[in-house]
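Hi all, posting the design record for the shared folder.

TITLE: backbone redesign
STEP: 1 of 1
STRUCTURE INPUT:
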């Protein structure tokens, strides 16, 4: 048994899997490395990659982290509400048309002052006005979403994710004027998330040619975006002053921090270091979040079966979205079955040393999605468990 497996098995011997363990030593080391890479720029924590209020509080208590980037308005209200909010500065990373959540926002001046909505169209302003007309509600803070993808060949080539329709400085300025001309709205910030850099590994293991190609495209994209983002910030600032300009992600912190137009960064996945973030040249995070499944069958020599296992990450279907068995290390998923809903067979040299009742430890492809499957993260410091913190699911929420 490897020391890592021995440590995990011994610490959780009295618990029944499935279970998830959060290594706080690794979490803290990853947080420190993120702030180092940010070069003094504050990091807004992407909550979708954390999904535990206790972990968010721990990270936000560290120097270098400030504010939350939420993924739904309902989540933002939960994090910003009450007498002891997780954060008094929560930006919703995506536009919302959740009328119930919007009603809660405009009914509470304190929440309206703490939460900023994302918009990329006047339609999103209309959604707010349909819930409560101006004059009958507090001002609603908004942030403009500038599309950061690389477009070429007259738009026939698109590198990046499909986000905002606002792509050029003129479009950003036009939307800014619309916001400022609308009663009941306050323009607070601008965001431009370069997913093609922050979320695409530039040194994928075993694929050196792909790494070269990715690095070339990313360099081109960053040069283009630096010019366009600076022009967009200038154009919007001529309409109204901006409190913040947000950019970046775990995979691009130091490169985005070098852009003088950006005032703050965003990151979250690097705190847990899932497998999709193993292939970057700029950093090597420590896996902080693992989950265990029990061995329930030994169907053949060299093969074991664990209960459950279908903890598959979102995104384009592919092998890189599957959970990876890491302790013991010499196991692999079967191509004909993959990670199953009720059982997952594993094959490899380490299978014959496993017995029914033993556990196999996995890493997830994405960060926060582990928390969709467990109610708590058991916290590990040194060689001992120190307790457990609830996930969103454990607190009765699934945003």
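Okay, here is what came back for every position:
SEQUENCE:
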């Amino acid at each position: 048994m490897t020391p890592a497996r021995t440590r995990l098995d011994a610490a959780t011997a009295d618990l029944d899997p499935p279970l998830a363990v959060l290594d706080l030593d690794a979490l803290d080391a990853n947080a420190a490395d993120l702030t180092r890479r940010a070069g003094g720029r504050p990091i807004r924590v992407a909550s979708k990659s954390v999904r535990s209020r206790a972990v968010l509080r721990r990270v936000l208590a560290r120097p270098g982290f400030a504010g939350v980037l939420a993924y739904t308005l309902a989540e933002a209200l939960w994090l910003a509400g009450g007498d002891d909010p997780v954060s008094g500065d929560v930006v919703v990373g995506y536009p919302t048309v959740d009328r119930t959540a919007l009603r809660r926002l405009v009914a509470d001046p304190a929440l309206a002052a703490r939460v900023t909505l994302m918009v990329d169209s006047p339609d999103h302003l209309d959604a707010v006005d349909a819930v409560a007309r101006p004059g009958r509600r507090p001002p609603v803070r908004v942030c403009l979403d500038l599309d950061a993808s690389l477009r070429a060949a007259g738009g026939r080539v698109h590198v990046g994710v499909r986000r905002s329709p606002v792509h050029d400085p003129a479009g950003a300025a036009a939307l800014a004027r619309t916001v400022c001309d609308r009663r009941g709205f306050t323009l607070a910030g601008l965001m431009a998330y370069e997913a093609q850099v922050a979320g695409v590994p530039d040194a994928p293991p075993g694929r050196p040619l792909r790494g070269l190609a990715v690095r070339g495209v990313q360099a081109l994209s960053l040069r283009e975006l630096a010019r366009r983002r600076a022009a967009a910030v200038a154009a919007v600032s001529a309409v109204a002053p901006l409190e913040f300009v947000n950019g970046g992600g775990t995979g691009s912190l130091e490169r985005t921090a070098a852009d003088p137009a950006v005032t703050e960064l965003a990151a979250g996945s690097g705190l847990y270091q899932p497998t999709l973030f193993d292939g970057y040249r700029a950093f090597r995070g420590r896996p902080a979040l693992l989950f265990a499944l029990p061995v329930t069958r030994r169907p053949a020599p060299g093969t074991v079966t664990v209960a459950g296992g279908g903890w598959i990450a979102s995104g384009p279907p592919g092998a890189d979205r599957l959970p990876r068995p890491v302790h013991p290390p010499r196991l692999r998923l079967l191509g004909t079955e993959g990670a199953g809903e009720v059982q997952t067979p594993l094959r490899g040299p380490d299978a014959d040393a496993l017995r029914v009742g033993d556990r196999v430890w996995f890493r997830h492809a994405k960060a926060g999605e582990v928390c969709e499957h467990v109610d708590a993260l058991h916290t590990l410091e040194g060689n001992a468990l120190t307790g457990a913190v609830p996930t969103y699911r454990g607190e009765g929420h699934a945003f």
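COMMENT: The mean pLDDT is 95.
Let me know if anyone wants the other runs.
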